[in-house]
Amino acid sequence: MLLAGFTSAVLAQARDAPRLAKEYAEAVEAVNRAHADKPAARDEDELGKKLPANAAKCVAELTKVEDSPAAREALATAAKAALELDRTEDFEPLRARLAAFAPGPAKELGIVLSRPRFLAIGTNGVEPEGLAAIADVLDLVLDGYAERFGFTAFSKVAGKKLRLRVHLEQKITRPPHFAPQFPWHSEIDFPVVDARAFRSPTADGKFLFYGLCHELGHVIAMWGDRQNEEDRHAWAHYTGVVLVEHLAQTRKDHPAMQELRDVRWRSLEFERKQLAAKKVVPGPKDADTVFARFLALHDAVGAKAIGEALNALDAAGKHLLENRVRYYAMRDFEAELLSSKAGRAKKKDIEAAFAGG
Ligand SMILES: [Zn+2]
């Protein structure tokens, strides 16, 4: 036994830590690339199992490396790569080894919580109970999107989990945002001010619950293209308030909802009054008029039919893909709605909602 331990320690040094980390990260990348080119795995658990055995062995060797600056860097590199494939079983021992040498860099990697539809990563001091509190709400939000709109695909690459990157801040200076740049998954950047709980709005009036609902809207659909945001940012606002209102009504007694009060200021009802007071009519030109368009469509055919139309465009490949992010055209959306069963009965209302361009 002693000899075996000695041999593996020598082995780990002989095949240096940076090389092990590189081999592992490249294997993760290759699995992700192959899947993105031709999605075969049903979900990320299945995908994670496609990692070759020799790559998984790198983790075992890395967790035995001796401390050195290069070893620390290699452990961090491999741990980050593990999250690209939701391999928490690799992430945890790599992080633990790094923590034994250097608590600071290990803390920088953060903590993770893997759920069937997403991977939540908490950094900068987010505690496990705080991360779990947000994850519980995100699960409700995802359920709500499925219930209201029929949306169930929440990452740009089918079968990949959504990522939620939660970071603790003294003060929130940038609201949550959809980060479209990652190649294999969709990610939401999510600042919080409380390490152990999730309350919204925050004491200084940041609507984090609504923000989470809103960002999911961006993940599901972008409009026009990168130069011309056809929805004038109204789509995510529309789906965001629909979701806040829906969960406030249907999950009132759910433990995860007890500290969330956004519905007082973020709801369809609230927006309806605002638009009526301002006498906004549906149109294409700004956030208010496009919001009024979505609201008119919502009232005509309902959220489900709106969701079905987008899902149909998606299935038909009628969208633009920019770095795999889905961009839809209003014109296609209108045509799809008009040809749907719900839409055929409301032709006039739909045409009125799209009037003006
Ligand atoms: Zn937004």
Please outline what is shown here.
The chain is of the alpha/beta class and 357 residues long.
Identify the notable features of this structure and list them briefly:
binds zinc ion, 357 residues, alpha/beta, globular, 55% helix, single chain, Neutral Protease, domain 2, 2 domains, three-stranded mixed sheet, five-stranded mixed sheet, 10% strand
Structure commentary:
- The protein is of the alpha/beta class and 357 residues long.
- The chain folds into 2 domains: 2-109, no CATH class; 128-353, Neutral Protease, domain 2 (Orthogonal Bundle).
- The protein contains 16 helices and 8 strands.
- It has helices spanning 2-14, 17-37, 44-48, 53-62, 69-83, 88-101, 103-109, 128-149, 208-220, 234-250, 268-278, 287-301, 303-315, 330-339, 341-344, 347-353, and strands spanning 111-115, 118-123, 162-168, 177-179, 187-192, 222-223, 320-322, 325-328.
- The protein has a 5-stranded mixed sheet.
- The longest helix has 22 residues, at 128-149.
- The mean pLDDT is 94.
- Zinc ion (ZN) is lined by residues 214, 218, 233, 236.
